[in-house]
Predict the structure.
Amino acid sequence: MKKIFSNEYFLFIARIVIAFVFIYAGAEKISDPKSFSQAIYNYRLFPSEIINLFAITIPWLELISGILLLFGICVKENSAIIGTLLLLFIVLIVISLIRGLDINCGCFGKASPIGWKKIGENLLMLILCLALVAFGSNKFSLTTRK
Amino acid sequence: MDKKKILYIIFFSIIIGFTYNYLNPNGIPLIREERKLDFAEDDTVNLDSSFTFQNIPDTLSNKNELSEKDYNKEKDSLINQSTKSKSFTTEPFTKPLAIKIDKAYQLYKQGVKFIDARMPEEYAEGHIKGAINIPFDGDESYRNILKSFNKDEILVTYCSGTECDLSILLGDELFEKGFKRVYIFFGGWNDWVERNYPISKGNE
């Protein structure tokens, strides 16, 4: 198992996949902050005073971490950030499912309702992130010349 | 792993986020504004009572698309005529107004278009008879039908009940798109079913 996770090609692919997912997710939310603010509001877990602060900053954190990950800059650090975000999203979705909320997850724009499938996707990405945090990935990276 | 780097990345993301939001014309306020619903005054909802369009949803569903269009046009012009005769209804709203079940039913009897803002699955399970489905979170293609509507037309949006906000969001969106007489039916589907008002199932 460790062999697979520490394989440099596996780690490289994991890095690229997560990078693109988060670049897309971040850019999409940046383009429509109003919808993202509404999506956070729909979870009904946060006071309305702080919702927009999240809506303004989280998409940029996703986008910047994604770009840095794509170019292999600070891979472990960015994987840790994205992993933390994923963990947070999983917790939020689970809470909402248990509460029986039928809402849009706010993950990738409109029309992506929350559900166990979403949790599965996020868990998968979280595992990839953990592997990257543990082993890093400097294949085709800008900072290390090989 | 360097924790300092993590803090730097988070810090810069926050700075860029706030700067971008400040410069972005579509930026959002730092503190979210609660959407307050204003309820319509009694007299603004009353159309000329001599113009009622009974059973329109029934007949509409039996007609084919082409004639339905003509029919709508005819109906629109009739509604326009009737509203023009009353000065208070021709005044454009400053924002979408909320209405409750009684007024909603009154408008329904007058043949006003109802728009279901819920997801297509919920719409198929049951909706107000004759209502059009434009899921707020759905595909853009659902919104194509809006192009055939007259901007002066009265529209009523609704969702599942008082707790949902899809009807409010869709109402605001329609209002921004230029529909000047948008009502939000506060109470929505739940209130409608409770009163046993006409409903239909599937995609009719």
Notes: The radius of gyration of chain A is 16 Å. Chain A is about 75% helix and 0% strand. The mean pLDDT of chain A is 88. Chain A touches chain B at residues 30, 32-34, 37-38, 41-42, 48-49, 51-53, 55-61, 63-65, 68, 74, 76-78, 80-81, 104, 110-111, 113, 133 (CB under 8 Å).
